[in-house]
Amino acid sequence: MRRLIPLLLLSGLALPAGFAQSALADNLSVALDEVQTVHFPLAPAAVNVGNPAIVDITMIDDRNAFILGKAYGATNIIAVGKGGEVISNTHVSVLNGQQATVTLQRGTARTTYNCTVSRCEAAPQPGDGKDSFDTANAQITAHQDSAKKAATPQQQ
Known about the structure:
The protein is an alpha+beta fold. Helices cover 22% and strands 40% of the residues. The protein has 3 helices and 10 strands. It is globular and about 55 Å long.
């Protein structure tokens, strides 16, 4: 019997189902305004987003969800089981797709851009000059408000 217990522990048979997966931490990159899917090893009882200003989550079914990149930055998503155990802790970074970052320094004022081959767009980052940061942030907020308004059912 003494030899059987260590073998059971090593094989995972003595552990509750999903216990080994509950400690897994995944990393996920999502482009701004794009959706990725995430799969949970077990059906979660609750799913929480660290910073809902950065990503949003919508459950598709009991073990799969859509992750929407809402703003640049990093946060995490924790899925918790019925007993309060952590099923998944996924770290999410919201980036601007395949674009490159360019930083323009004018004296002490800095402006950050995300660029493709044909154009660059302002991408406010901490440390950017106040004027460029506030202007770009206002545009991002207006963009998010328009998206929310378009997604809200219209009353007739």
